[in-house]
TrEMBL record:
Protein name: Uncharacterized protein
InterPro entries given in the database record: AntA/B_antirep, Phage_P22_antirepressor_C
Lineage, highest ranks first: Bacteria, Pseudomonadati, Pseudomonadota, Gammaproteobacteria, Pasteurellales
Residue ranges annotated for the AntA/AntB antirepressor domain, each copy included: 16-81
Limits of the Bacteriophage P22 antirepressor protein C-terminal domain: 112-184
Top-level lineage group: Bacteria
Amino acid sequence: MPVFNGLIANQTVQLCNARELHAFVGSKRQYGDWIKDRITDYGFVQDEDYIIVTQRTNGRPRKEYHITLDMGKELAMVERNEKGRQVRKYFIECERKALQQPKQLALPEPEKKYTFEFTEYELQQMAWLWFAFKRGVGISQHIHKIFKMLRSDMAGQIYGQAYDYLSVLRATNQTLNRITQKFEADPMTNWRVLKHLCQFDPKAVKIDV
């Protein structure tokens, strides 16, 4: 009895043709009635346990039920005969072999890159925004110590705020250094902020608990 791969809910699964299963187990019922009653009696769900495929035979359309091996095992066992038990063992072996086959690892999609244009003023504003977060870490830590001594419920929120500030600093420092590398720190202009940006050490800054 052929077992083949098919798609159910966009997932590749092993399937078999219910018509061939019906013939193999030797059911004396008419195939159309057999499969419809089994679906109703045992609560099988279309596009979950089986799919319906229309095929043409001698120019006439014929409806085929392609069923999962789990559904096939259940249909085989309810026949309560030796053929049904053979089918169940066969499907279990098919599943075992499929699990042993090495699966091809999906290659990660290349990271998307974008190109933007910024004015010098806009770059300065981003650098100063980063510096504001840096100052926020120090201020939040100082306030956190005071609220912690007072046993205030706000202490935890302030600690969380300091942690968020530090996360932003670490995540954006490398990017900002890259996009401002053509500029030099100048104490007489807004580029004086570059001194703080370039000297920042992500590992050196920690939040006291």
